[in-house]
Amino acid sequence: MNELLKSNILKWLKTGKRYDGRGLEDFRPIVVERGVTKNAEGSARVRIGDTEVIAGVKLSVEKPYPDTPKNGNLMVGAELLPLSNPEFEAGPPNEEAIEVARVVDRGLRESNALDTKKLCLEEGEKVWSVSIDICTINVDGNLLDASALAAVAAIQDARFPGYDGKTVDYKHLTEKRLPMARTPISITVNKLGEFIFVDPSTDEEMIVDARLTVAMTEGKICALQKGGSTPLTIDEIGRMIDLAKAKAGELSVKLK
Amino acid sequence: MSYDKRVDGRRPDETRPIVAKAGIIKRADGSAMFQMGNTVAYAAVYGPRDLFPRFMQNPQRGVLRCRYNMMPFSGAGERVKPGGSRRSKEISMVTEKALLPVLNLEDFPNAVVDVFIELPQTDAGTRCAGICAASIALADAGLSMRDMVAAVSVGKVDNMVAVDLNYAEESYEGGDVADIPVAFIPRTGQVSLLQMDGLIDAESLKRALELGKKACSEIYEIQKKALKEKFASGAGVNGNGER
Amino acid sequence: MGELLVSDKSIVVPGEEVAVGMDFLPTEGVYRDGDKLVASRLGLFSVDGRLVKLIPLSGKYLPKKGDVIIGKVVDVLISGWRVDINSAYTAMLSMKDATSEFIARGADLTRYFTFGDYIVTNIVNVTSQNLVDLTMKGPGLKKLSEGMIIKVAPNKVPRIIGKQGSMVSMIKDATGCRVTVGQNGIVWLQGEPSQEFVAVSAIRKIEQESHISGLTDRIKAFLDEEVGKIKGG
Fold first, then answer.
1. What is the CATH number of the domain that holds C109?
2. ipTM confidence
3. C-alpha closest to that of B118 among A92, A81, A40
4. How many interface pairs between A and C have CB atoms less than 8 angstroms apart?
5. Domain B18-231 is in which class?
6. How far B42 CA sits from the closest chain C CA (Å)?
7. pLDDT digits (tens, 9 = 90+) for B124-164
8. Residue A238, number of CB atoms within 10 A of its CB
């Protein structure tokens, strides 16, 4: 473990500041752009500081899962591209990539962000399948929040392709938007010593004791993911959730 | 009916609009974006750096390793399954061969230079856009290179010999189509990538290659400009934010 | 008579012809092709009499014998340590060069340096195969036990240090921070957090603006203003 880094970041946190001059509850500047790639039915680029991800939505007509014959399918994938970070390697998704995909997936699924019943074309036979893929361009901390934000923005941007009952016409998108019912927001709160803070940089992420990703919608919590190997007390969890809730408005403005 | 006017109104020797930018990925040692019409390629260079496993090392010179990959949502039509295909493997290999002749890697025995090419949006000519982006990224990374590499696809659509075919032209059905991705080393005029599929006569092929050479010298100027713009601002700082 | 094809101090890219004629001599980053001199890397074109060369604007640190650098211990081996020196290759610090103490065979080497430790060290040798040997024997060479580490572009290091260390001294004096600039682009700082922040900001400013003349005056003004803010508020 990097003790030099850790002791210095702690020294800073004690003064209420971070390496880059931010306060503990400050995000770096957030930029959301929609419609960033033409061949996806919906797409978004999210930048949080120097972290940059692209999310794309592809739609297809498929058979529903046997246990949900009336519901459309939702799939989230994340690729931690080796171009985005010297530490990432080419190859099948590793644990970190799978965690990003699954945390984003749960935030969307459990908030019922998409009204999947409205994605049904023919019960038990044909439904719209929504695939969201997140690709990292530059990784400099807080990939989880950037990915979740990009996924929602890409869904908001998406339009159905043409469909005549047999084939999907990807060349001609309709004006019809995806049936969005809610807009979930995910915020990861990090803990180091007695301090909690949002939007960690690469350095901070390397040395945090624990993190808690809180997905929220309409004031309720819809998914949680604790990371890091240090346990948390109920009191700490409470404080972390309070901070996440307090910051949710700042992110949801970007999804308006 | 013959193909005498291009679908997008370009002259036969005219490429699609090109945009190039150096230094788009902060964590990388060198990086670039290269857009040709609707095809967009990102490239990042990492290295020279340690190469493991050891058996892949070359004690005489550094190894160049390229990876070409389409993002899952980048293609027209259905989602591209992530994880690579026989096609992406082959393109990665020919990209490596196209770039290697200009690189001086003798000063870096046993090390590797990694080039990662990612396509967020595709519309024909992806491997050429990838090579153009990679070449800018390699120069941006400060590597020793005898020259840049510029690439474009040339070909013949029915009776017309043309450069930089778009997807509509590649899939033209009114006559024979030949699609020929080609890369040039601008100073020497040598060809470092040459592939083809379709049908073409030898005479037209030669004409197509001449057109490609001319287009690549234009592309080289664009690559040059992208690099100069980045460093003219003095903000040419790569590989930051890393410990 | 030969002729320069680009002006002194302009940015050139690989493959660009910089001069024509046999009377010019190509040095670093330039090669001869017939009567032409051609750039073999991206850099700042520089002419010194008949010698032409390129000053790098990017790229990894190239280890040089005698350089004082800052490295990070990445592995503990049987007879020494492997150290990341922010270059294409990791370097070796062997037991005998690590300390003036006698280290017995089989001793626990992590007692001296362990994973993640940062050290100020000196390059004693670079072989043709780019194997780099380090030593800890010499003034100022030590393990860093507190403070912060930042990374800067290795080609900007001379500007951050300044003539005879003038720039870095100015930062130290203004902020009261201790600062060590490794030739490999790793910088160590230690001081009060608010002053550390000013010192880091000044270094980033030097990195970004090193090509604009009047750098020293601008950095001095910047330091005065920022340090003034801390004292004032």
1. 2.40.50.140
2. 0.95
3. A81
4. 32
5. alpha beta
6. 19
7. 999 999 999 999 999 999 999 999 999 999 999 999 999 99
8. 11
